[in-house]
Amino acid sequence: MKRVVSPGLLVAALVAAPELLAQQRLARVHAVELTFAAGYFQPTGPNGQLGSATLTRKPSWEAGVHFGAYAKSGVWGAELSAGYAPERVSVGGTGSRRTHLTFGTLRALFGRSPRKPGISIMAGAGFSIHHRQNDVTNADSSRSHVGGAGSLLIRIPIDDQVGLRLDAQDLIYRADFGGGSKLRNDFVLSAGLGISW
Length: 197
Prior knowledge:
11% of the residues lie in helices and 60% in strands. By secondary structure, it is mainly β. The N and C termini lie far apart (48 Å).
């Protein structure tokens, strides 16, 4: 006996199809992501002073890693980042040396997260820590500073698990590089590949 599909059932199936496809697509979007990145480190703030010599921090390359976890709503997230920059210091124009800066940030994120399909854009704010193996004013000692951090990320999906990440971070802290404690804003601009699961 031949079965006949009723027009009402066919219309209901067609109406439900986009929603079912969207649910399947969302089910493939993962909650955590690990990103390996590299880019540019730009120190800012007043120059330092060592006796009569001016200390000037110079830009350098940077390499880092980000680990993010995102809420099911697709709006909130949290991210832990760590990075390294050689950071050169020019001493009175007579030569330069490296400080070997390592830094980490812990930030809360808000925006359109990778839990949603398409391009992700998230802004973040939180805490930062900075450690220089060779202090700006004294190459024979190390020094650490604690401060705040702001960030902006843009993620462009390549496939279901991999995305291109563009990141900007602002490392905010107070430090005395000669001449008293001053506010510093060091910028990190990077690009990398994020792998989610």
